[in-house]
Description:
Layout: H1 2-26, H2 31-52, H3 56-65, H4 67-88, H5 94-101, H6 104-110, E1 116-121, E2 124-129, H7 134-155, H8 160-188, H9 194-219, H10 225-252, H11 257-265, H12 270-281, H13 289-309, E3 318-320
Helix pairs in contact: 1-5, 1-10, 1-11, 1-12, 2-4, 2-9, 2-10, 4-8, 4-9, 5-7, 5-8, 5-12, 6-8, 6-11, 7-13, 9-10, 11-13
Amino acid sequence: xxxxxxxxxxxxxxxxxxxxxxxxxxxxxxxxxxxxxxxxxxxxxxxxxxxxxxxxxxxxxxxxxxxxxxxxxxxxxxxxxxxxxxxxxxxxxxxxxxxxxxxxxxxxxxxxxxxxxxxxxxxxxxxxxxxxxxxxxxxxxxxxxxxxxxxxxxxxxxxxxxxxxxxxxxxxxxxxxxxxxxxxxxxxxxxxxxxxxxxxxxxxxxxxxxxxxxxxxxxxxxxxxxxxxxxxxxxxxxxxxxxxxxxxxxxxxxxxxxxxxxxxxxxxxxxxxxxxxxxxxxxxxxxxxxxxxxxxxxxxxxxxxxxxxxxxxxxxxxxxxx
Length: 322
């Protein structure tokens, strides 16, 4: 249950992203600075944490082993994840982006065949390609049903253009985030803790953010002070706290794709936190009874998914780290 609990807390801090990014857009801030400033601000905080834990040298050593892999999968896991989310905030409210983001529950499960699991058997250890976690997918479908019910009334008032511009970037992000995260777990092979891995991926993604910020300077100008402060709050809550909590949770269950999918499914509660945040901060009206019904279904789906993930593996086929 600890990985599930950490996943839920990470969802709480991740929800700040959807609310603050929408607030920045409503006040005229560009998605370019919303995305790049977050990662610039993350560096000093993460660097201080890793230095205090005396783990910087080991991180650098691991990064030097496969620098191309770090650049590639950090770009996928961070850049193709967060830049599209910020872009979508320019066209859709935070609650809709948070709702659409729950596609990552399915996305993470669909990625299973791209990875290998090491299985203990009586004859020894063998590597097998991951399979779709059928039980987990069924529970994920329940969660998605609740999300759909919550968003039905709101989505009916949105144009097709706004829907597509808000949906397609988030769809890309929903695959990029778990793919980059899992690939970096394979590259690091359990030698790095969550703080080291987040710092390493942040440093490896900086070339992209530098190029994006240069593009922003020439197209929209420098960011306003208010947007910089808001981006700093996102960097601390979502970039540092939420990401570290989520990576800690996924590290605990790496090698077990079913439990990994369950941890990723905890991110579904982001929509509840984002909805509450927009109601309090951006004066979003109270949800309809249909939306409340959807919330209860999400809660039920979360509980069911957590229960399903606790199913014990057979003694002759115990999953271990790949």
